[in-house]
Amino acid sequence: MTERNRIFPPWSEINNLKVKLTRGEEFLAKFLDNNLPTDWNIYLKTKFEWGGGKTPDIVIAHKSKGIMIFEVKDIDIKNYCRKKFKTKKTNKEKLFFCRIGTDKKTGKKITYRITDPVEQLQGYRDKLFENLPEITWDIISDHNKLKLIRGGIYFHHHYRDKEFTLDKIRKMVRPFNQGEIHLFSRKQLEEGKNNIKNIVPFLNENYGVKMGEKWFDRFYNWIYPPLHEFEHGIKLTFNTRQKYYINPKPGVYQKLFGVAGSGKTLVLAHRAAKLLAENKKVLIICFNITLKHYIREQIEKPYLKFSKKKLTVEHFHGFTKMYARDKDIPYPFGGSDSENLAEHVNRVIDRRKKDKNYERYDAILIDEGQDFEEHWYKFLCDFLSENNEVLFAIDKKQNIYGRDLKWAKGRSGELLDQGYRLPKNQIKLINQFSKEFLATFDDAAESSIIIPPYEGQLSLLPAKYESIWKNVKSFEDAEKEVHSRLLYLIKDLSMKLSDIVLLVNNRKEGNELKKYIADKLNIKNIMDVFSIGPVGRLKKITFKINSPYLKMSTIHSFKGWEARNVIIVTPNNKSIHSHLYTALTRVRENLIVVNQNKRYEKFGIENFKNL
Length: 611
Description:
Elements: E1 7-8, H1 11-14, H2 23-35, E2 40-44, E3 58-62, E4 66-74, E5 80-86, E6 93-102, E7 109-113, H3 117-131, H4 133-141, E8 149-156, H5 166-172, E9 181-185, H6 186-189, H7 196-199, H8 212-223, E10 228-229, H9 240-246, E11 253-257, H10 264-277, E12 282-286, H11 292-299, E13 305-306, E14 311-315, H12 316-326, H13 337-354, E15 361-366, H14 374-381, E16 384-394, H15 424-437, H16 444-447, E17 467-471, H17 475-492, E18 500-504, H18 507-521, E19 526-527, H19 533-541, E20 550-554, H20 555-558, E21 563-569, H21 577-584, E22 587-595, H22 601-607, E23 609-610
Parallel strand pairs: 1-2, 4-8, 8-9, 11-16, 12-14, 12-15, 15-16, 17-22, 17-23, 18-20, 18-21, 19-20, 21-22
Antiparallel strand pairs: 2-3, 3-4, 5-6, 6-7, 10-13
Helix pairs in contact: 4-19, 9-10, 10-11, 12-13, 15-21, 17-18
């Protein structure tokens, strides 16, 4: 072992780990500790903070060379194969990584699909990208830096296993980019120090880019965070109704109905902080993947001491995928994206009914409840411990997915109906829009208007709160109007680009508008969620309101967030009542609507300042 203690936890404490190292993990850890240069750090069984779920087996990091994540497989190659199975949707055959076992009832050999190690490793990389957005955005700006985050899959086989070869393994696992993932075996480790450069390619390659100490510091603080003590932010006060929901209530299932801007997410976050301070295990679930960062930021506002080790924050489908990975439930690929996702959720829920062996939580807090199906809610509640505590926050007027929410009932006396976040003159506009375009529910708790904050409540923004509406005939006119309004905000009102968000209905218009604005304003960095594929996912999971860039988003992805200046571009021929209501309620100061839709022309003329 090295004299310098660069392995975490130290060898003296490794035997005290709740999850013991496998033989393969210990073998690789010792090899790395004995042979890596001393300026590399090694992390064992570290739970990726905020992530929850399974943990990477070993991670190594260097201040300039990069980060490498290892998945270790203790393997007898005779028990694994790659086999074709028919997908339910298409009835076509597809290859899967499989395990060969024995049926306990019949004693016959059976082959069943399990999570592919390549897929597992890619999941860890995604979690790192999601939780270290500064690094991710650096990579988006310079794609060459993606080479600084690599993966390795180590196959630890019996030293007498003559059947084992890496060629056989390559034929079993799904195809992968060898520039991103490196496969190696016990035989290579036994060759000793001379082979360390083949195990860790960073030692043998020069990419022309460096990680830098800022990357390393962020990574180090994230992977081994200290006890969390909040010393920043504004000390907040709560009214009687909010306090009722903030205090933990073991054994109680609560539905928190609240209007836009009433502090539902903040209340939920404070409830989480109090539970964590009581050493409770907490799961927070939202629907919108981009909202996760906002929830984390809100949890940092209470003046409380707690460790984040017992906190998991996930969006719903992130949680189901986390569960699927743990249970080796394959993701379907036979239908459309939406069909595959629905089938995935059904598989996970069906497995949960049969298999209760999974992590449990003392309290489950659900935000954006209007986006959830009833059977999703019941599925989540099945992960509760004996503490059996639920808080379910919901605003039916923001039901942009058109869910059937008859099952979610509340009481008007417990409604959060005061819009603390929203400017008073904008509240009047939003209430009028709700009256004209949104359905009235039988339940008073679901139909309440937004009540303005008290006269004595001070605003944090020294602003005049502009509300501007402009009807246009085409998308080309909308682009020109958005550019004009941006110049007005930047030059006339001295707003920073980072305080402005542009909201659109779909990716296509978003990308076109982004290109137009980038050219007109001559700016390179715009934070958006419009890409598809791997880069699109990176953008979405790292979207943060406190970044230094102009932001662009679909209304769906910005739900739950807020911005000082909001510019909304409506689609030209689509009814988007709930979407537009949600978009209107995202504003903190200046609200600008560029409208292409005839349905809303009259409303804009009668209620907004038209320029």
